[in-house]
Amino acid sequence: MENVISKKGGRKMVMKTIEMVLMLGIPYTFMISGLVTAALPFIGLWFMMGLGAAGIGSSVMHDANHGSYSSSNRVNRIISFSMDLVGGNALIWRLQHNVLYHTYTNVQGADEDIYGPLVLRFSPNQEHKFIHRFQHLHAWLFYPLMSLVKVIYTDLLSTSVLCFLFSVSCFLLK
User: Fold this and answer.
1) pLDDT higher for 51 or 163?
2) DSSP string of 1-42?
3) 89 versus 131: which is more confidently predicted?
4) Residue 42 domain flag
5) Residue 117: which of 101, 141, 92, 93 has the closest Cα?
6) Which residue has the higher pLDDT, 148 or 102?
């Protein structure tokens, strides 16, 4: 018996996209409008924004960049730029993920995505610590921070390196 599941996202993916954008946008609107100023609700809104940004980055944009969000290449291309909405850079992500990551998926020493906080273990080749037994519980606390780390560390570093290399090549060509 053959499974007839579409390789494209369909209606469920569109609904997930709407949910993730709302999880990012609604708290943001409350925060910048000044309607919420107390610390605890503000932190809760920030946390919800983080989940929305992580959902956009790890699901919506990811599927679009792989061409599986829609059967339309144009829609996939447009949705892929949702990474820019959460502070990343879709073009750099495509290079890092589609070229570097998929060339060296889960290869120790070559795949930078398997290195995370010490409380998370992404590869069976990494040292197993006691805290990793509970990773399925505490990993969710780190998801809202993923986009922030991506923007500050990975994209900023990559952009800086690319800008430096471009500047050096322009200088050498003069």
Assistant:
1) 51
2) ------SS-HHHHHHHHHHHHHHHHHHHHHHHHTS--SHHHH
3) 131
4) yes
5) 141
6) 102
